[in-house]
Amino acid sequence: MADLVRSIPSMVDGLKSGQRKILFCSFKRNFVSQAKVAQFSGYVSEHSAYHHGQFGIRSQGVKDHASGRYIFTCLSPITRYIFPKDDDILLGYLKEDGQQIELTLLVS
């Protein structure tokens, strides 16, 4: 069941829980300047209780990947147009061990 929860996108926002954790951490960090993927994945793992392996396809044995120290990423400026900051008050937070780990839509 837990695998299905991680694998099937939500009908509400179209995101899987791992993708939602990445957005949560991007907003939390105000991630507008570039950072190494290896560093950001560590940040996501630490701040969102991501327990399910590595990011990307290296864990699947693919040999044509670039090393994490050479890949950079940042939050696209359009992201806050798609997910406006004013809408954050409509969101709730999933918690694990008292730590906020992921954004979720409040359903009444």
TrEMBL record:
| Co-factor requirement | Mg(2+)
This protein's record includes keyword DNA-binding: yes
Q: Which InterPro entries match?
A: DNA_Topoisomerase_II, Topo_IIA-like_dom_sf, Topo_IIA_A/C_ab, Topo_IIA_dom_A, TopoII_euk
Checking Pfam families in the record gives: DNA_topoisoIV
Q: Which residues form the Topo IIA-type catalytic domain?
A: 8-108
Listed A to Z, the keywords are:
ATP-binding, DNA-binding, Isomerase, Nucleotide-binding, Topoisomerase
Report the enzyme's class at the first EC level. Answer: isomerase
Q: Which GO terms describe its cellular component?
A: nucleus
Specify the superkingdom. Answer: Eukaryota
Catalytic activity from the UniProt record: ATP-dependent breakage, passage and rejoining of double-stranded DNA
For this entry, list what GO says about its biological process.
Answer: DNA topological change; resolution of meiotic recombination intermediates; sister chromatid segregation
Q: What is its EC number?
A: 5.6.2.2
Q: Please provide, alphabetically and separated by semicolons, the GO molecular function terms listed in this UniProt record.
A: ATP binding; DNA binding; DNA topoisomerase type II (double strand cut, ATP-hydrolyzing) activity
What protein name is recorded for this chain?
DNA topoisomerase (ATP-hydrolyzing)
Which organism is the protein's source?
Answer: Adiantum capillus-veneris (Maidenhair fern)
